[in-house]
């Protein structure tokens, strides 16, 4: 019966999807010994910084601890309003969830100074988030429907160009679980019938 249960579970849809982005928490990058922040061009894992270097923060005096791991990115780096982007494979017609976390620096100059935008390549407009003075990590989650076989996610600094930008961490893109195909339903149903029948027989033997 254990084997049958394992088969049924294997036929079920997988809900814990893998992140389609590489180095989503920026942990593949490291600081120089003794440093807590530095300028960083093209972070590891396929990230690109087309306008110039962003800032990598590692428990710096100006930033809260990273939301995941040790590192976070500030987009208002060497280039002022910097960008950070990564491309990933998508299936046309499949829905995906984008998730990322933002927080303001401890020495933030106020809501008007802060914020960043995010945008996917198939969308005509970017969305502005984080134009506040919240120094605690806040999760942003959005869904989108893929219209291309490759999609690019881009973040850009917003607010005032004053060197005090919004922090970004723990970025992920995952496919939303598809509906299981009919054969999977059939296998699950057959397995469940066998399990219930075995339980019924065992109960009757005890009488």
Automatic annotation (TrEMBL):
TM stretches of this protein: 183-200
Signal peptide residues on this chain, from the entry's feature table: 1-18
Highest taxon, organism lineage: Bacteria
Protein name as catalogued: Putative secreted protein with PEP-CTERM sorting signal
Residue intervals of the DUF642 domain: 19-173
InterPro entries per record: DGR2-like_dom, Galactose-bd-like_sf, Ice-binding_C
Keyword S-adenosyl-L-methionine set for record: no
Keywords, sorted A to Z: Membrane, Signal, Transmembrane, Transmembrane helix
Protein species of origin: Roseateles asaccharophilus
Residues covered by the Ice-binding protein C-terminal domain: 178-203
